[in-house]
From TrEMBL:
Region described as Disordered: spans on this chain: 184-276, 317-348
UniProt xrefs under PANTHER family: CAMP-BINDING PROTEIN 1-RELATED, GENERAL STRESS PROTEIN 16U
Listed Pro residues bias regions: 251-264
Protein name from the UniProt record: TerD family protein
TerD domain location: 64-162
Bias type Basic and acidic residues, positions: 317-326, 333-348
Assigned protein family: Belongs to the CAPAB/TerDEXZ family.
Pfam families listed in its UniProt record: TerD
Biased composition (Low complexity): 215-229
Amino acid sequence: MTAELVRGQNHTLPQTRLEIRVSAGSPVVAGATLGDERGTVRGAEWVAHPASHRVPGLEVSRQAAADHRLAVDLDALPDEVHRVTVLLALPMGAGRPGRFGAVAAPFVAVTGLDGAEIATFTLTGLDTESAVSAVELYRRQGGWKVRAVGQGYAAGLAEMLADQGVAGAAELAASIQEAVASGLARSVTPPPRSPDGERVRHPAGPAASPDDGRPAAPAQAPEPLADPASSHTDLPGGPINYAHPRRQTSAPPPPPPAAPPTAPGQPAQPVAGDAGGWSMDERLYNQIWGMFEDLARAVAAYRSAVDFAESRMDQELDRTLSDPRSRIGGAGDRAREQARAKRDELTGRAREALDRDLAQLAAESAVVEPALPAAYAGWDNPVWHGYRVPMEIPMAMRIGDLRLPEGNGLRIPLLVRLPLERGIWIDSGRTGSEAAAATSGDQLRRLAMETAVALAARLLAVHPSDEFSVHVIDPAGSAAAQLSPLIRAGVLAGPPAAGAEGVSSVLAHLTRRVDLVQMALRAGAADALPPDLDTGEQLLIVNDFPHGFDDRAVTQLRYLADEGPSVGVHLLMVADREDARAYGPVLDPLWRSQLRITPVADDHLADPWVGHAWTYEPLRVPEGSRVLDQVLALVAAARGAGYR
């Protein structure tokens, strides 16, 4: 039976191999400290955090996320350790909540490896605190207990670490936040939630955790899943449910009814636009993000089940090897075979459940993909053959596809909200992916610029006429071939800027626009803007950064990256970070402020729910297709005479 703790209450732990699950309404940093008999942390090596995620007996997440799973093996802790304290902190950065009072109350559950909850704690009553000691596991009379702590710290992570006796707490806290910032830079930004349009899930087994960070009221039992095909295996610690929660949505107006089941006991046929929303585009947007989240959690359930099966086998093998009787005759061999057979059975059942979920998502993808509007569609979608310049900006745009290795090739469209909330950096360097390693440096730079041109063309295509302008900085003129579709169509605001003078001129023009619009907004005098100022959205494509940039130009570019998106100036950079290594950490904020994508497949993006590393694939124009030229020609015709 689960113990629902309140602040200060404790509960005995019946086992020593545990998971600590954290659910929050927004990304949080999860870490843990090891303390001695007095609760003192003897050094940084006794702190597990995203920059050093493993210590003996303990492993935490590598990045900030809304959901965390911390693995704990109390028997593997050093003998000097008598206390394990789980820490939560809000990541620092512009636009992020600075206090726990501004986010949903975090929920912590201590579970066995089978997912059965032992104790839970909801951290209510927090206000100005930006860091909190959530729960602690501590030795008592030869056993272990868990205590609900909920001690908050308004001064943040540094104060919390110092309170536990960590030497150099401020420096350690800064390094943790630096690692978190790097992790958040690679995380896909989830869509904003609304009270009337948020997805509702029902917890079930080891895969379940509330996706909105708000646990159900303690007096309410979780609603069971309506899935007769779910697989259960009764184990000493409780049942494992390998099914993942199904989606339910409620938003005005309600989604259309699903098609009736094809046969008794069979799931309903998927319908395009079955999520909540006011328009079909919004429903499809929410449905795609729902598929993204479903795949993330389904794979998390599978991986958790496989980890549990491996852990159970290891425990059974350890017991077998520690029993002298197993060394006589074939008892030991039989026990090992039985342990491995049980592992294979559990893993097989988990895979069967995952395959069912994948089949459902694949069927949904098959009906959703053909129904997508141009902004959400791939370049090979027939919707582009009927393209017309839109009258209004769509809510989002597709910039690539995401997949997981367990997904059997299932691809989820990666959608970003419009107007862009941050810049995009196309990494033209030799990254660690197999595709990048097999591609020459020159070819990577060419592919990166082709990706930038395709994204710019898509941005032009999804905006109304004359409401989006594209500027290009190409200091050495090395991207002339890749830029030719934009140049031929005459859709650029001016010729690509080359040389130091051209770079300076474009940056000065856009910096002036940002300054003037910001001043007008602060003063409430938008009508005072100069008549020659283009107030439409602006995109700056920068090729081969930092070549051609002096220190002043670098400063201006950083300014545009930080301040531009809020007033309609967006950055699309093609760069190899290694080329800018001479600047050292000065440019770290620039790289982190942008969404990094690659011109070839690379597994560098993380989802905001579980933190899986997803393989990103850029959108490619089909070989021999003229769709890009045809779309740009229609854009140019709608704009009338432009630069040529």
